[in-house]
């Protein structure tokens, strides 16, 4: 999935596509929150949203499946009540409207509902709660809108990757849903640590998503790597999404996919690249 803020994603979303490199070089390290958030509808109505199904909403209840230590958390999504109030000495107002993602959520009555991205104000308050201070950064209202769009796009992309794995179980369950989510930015996965030993960079974030496969809980590990420049669809991160190696079924799925990748890679090497319709012809 995930195609749901974390230290990693905030580092990834430190800027708009135009000033992304400047924001990334500032060394900011804002903290995590949830996998889904939203944008300022008025300030950025001319910008293409990360997903066509996203819609503006004014629902104030928290819809982000992140664990917290609060005693008043919602047992369904492990989130405290939404904080939509402006923070003290906040330099500019932020919108409180939210968007609906394309990621279906687990509901008590089985109804079809989708996770909501927190508002820009909720995102700002979450960053402050985790230790980030705006006075240390050159950040504007527009930057916050771009941060939200990048974050949303990352999570929509993550859910699409989760669905590719869930396609292996389409006959078993045709409507998987995201049940909960947790950020583990400082807890690198074994694969990320192994890749780092080989000389590759560490991911800037990690999320664990719990997917409900028609009554069966399946944990997915998502490593987020720096993808460089933000594209026009606000995609930034390179995602490594796979089922966690904590069940026999997940291990078997990983083995099946590894075999298929090896098989088709070998066939490509044997057969060579497909020839074009004009191959073998000599230009006149």
Automatic annotation (TrEMBL):
<feature type="compositionally biased region" description="Basic and acidic residues">
    <location>
        <begin position="36"/>
        <end position="49"/>
    </location>
</feature>
<dbReference type="GO" id="GO:0005743">
    <property type="term" value="C:mitochondrial inner membrane"/>
</dbReference>
<dbReference type="Pfam" id="PF01265">
    <property type="entry name" value="Cyto_heme_lyase"/>
</dbReference>
<keyword id="KW-0456">Lyase</keyword>
<keyword id="KW-0408">Iron</keyword>
<keyword id="KW-0349">Heme</keyword>
<keyword id="KW-0999">Mitochondrion inner membrane</keyword>
<dbReference type="InterPro" id="IPR000511">
    <property type="entry name" value="Holocyt_c/c1_synthase"/>
</dbReference>
<comment type="function">
    <text>Lyase that catalyzes the covalent linking of the heme group to the cytochrome C apoprotein to produce the mature functional cytochrome.</text>
</comment>
<feature type="region of interest" description="Disordered">
    <location>
        <begin position="1"/>
        <end position="103"/>
    </location>
</feature>
<keyword id="KW-0496">Mitochondrion</keyword>
<comment type="similarity">
    <text>Belongs to the cytochrome c-type heme lyase family.</text>
</comment>
<dbReference type="GO" id="GO:0046872">
    <property type="term" value="F:metal ion binding"/>
</dbReference>
<protein>
    <recommendedName>
        <fullName>Holocytochrome c-type synthase</fullName>
        <ecNumber>4.4.1.17</ecNumber>
    </recommendedName>
</protein>
<keyword id="KW-0472">Membrane</keyword>
<keyword id="KW-0479">Metal-binding</keyword>
<feature type="compositionally biased region" description="Polar residues">
    <location>
        <begin position="1"/>
        <end position="12"/>
    </location>
</feature>
<dbReference type="GO" id="GO:0004408">
    <property type="term" value="F:holocytochrome-c synthase activity"/>
</dbReference>
């Amino acid at each position: 999935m995930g195609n749901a803020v974390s230290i990693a994603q905030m580092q990834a979303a430190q800027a708009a596509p135009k000033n992304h490199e400047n924001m990334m070089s500032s060394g900011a390290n804002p903290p995590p929150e949830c996998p889904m958030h939203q944008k300022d509808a008025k300030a950025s109505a001319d910008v293409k949203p990360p997903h066509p199904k996203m819609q503006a909403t004014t629902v104030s209840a928290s819809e982000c499946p992140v664990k917290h230590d609060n005693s008043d958390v919602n047992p369904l999504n492990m989130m405290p009540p939404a904080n939509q109030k402006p923070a003290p000495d906040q330099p500019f107002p932020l919108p409180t409207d939210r968007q609906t993602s394309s990621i279906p959520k687990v509901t008590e009555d089985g109804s079809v509902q989708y996770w909501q991205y927190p508002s820009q104000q909720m995102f700002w308050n979450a960053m402050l709660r985790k230790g980030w201070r705006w006075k240390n950064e050159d950040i504007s209202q527009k930057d916050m809108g771009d941060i939200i769009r990048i974050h949303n796009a990352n999570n929509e992309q993550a859910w699409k990757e989760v669905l590719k794995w869930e396609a292996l179980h389409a006959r078993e369950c045709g409507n998987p849903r995201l049940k909960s989510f947790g950020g583990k930015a400082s807890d690198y996965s074994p694969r990320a640590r192994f890749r780092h030993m080989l000389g590759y960079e560490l991911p800037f974030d990690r999320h664990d998503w719990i997917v409900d496969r028609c009554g069966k809980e399946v944990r997915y590990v998502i490593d987020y790597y720096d993808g460089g420049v933000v594209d026009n669809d606000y995609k930034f991160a390179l995602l490594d999404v796979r089922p966690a190696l904590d069940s026999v079924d997940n291990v078997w799925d990983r083995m099946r996919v590894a075999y298929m990748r090896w098989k088709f890679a070998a066939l490509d090497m044997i057969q060579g690249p497909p020839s074009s319709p004009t191959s073998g012809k000599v230009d006149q």
